[in-house]
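User: Show me a protein chain along with its predicted structure.
Assistant: Here is one chain, sequence first, then structure tokens.
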Amino acid sequence: MRKHRTPEQWQTLVDQQCASGLSASQFCKQENIGYASFCNWRKRLADPSLDDSAGSGEASFLDLSSLMGTSQSSGPGWNIVLSLGNGVELRLSQNG
């Protein structure tokens, strides 16, 4: 059965691994922790900005008006590809 840990518990584990002198892989084997989960949490805890909107239920917006361009020489239209994960892409295109 998988154990659910809080961010605080993950921080404690990351700190313990750092102090142990063991590699992350060795520490995870010793503590019976999933290596991928440990690495993911270590990264998230090192840079909290990576997790600001993920799972918070709040939408984040990116202003794309700068892509519209004011020069006629650049030609009308835009092409935007959003990679949603698992090989799924959302493509947005506009023609003159």
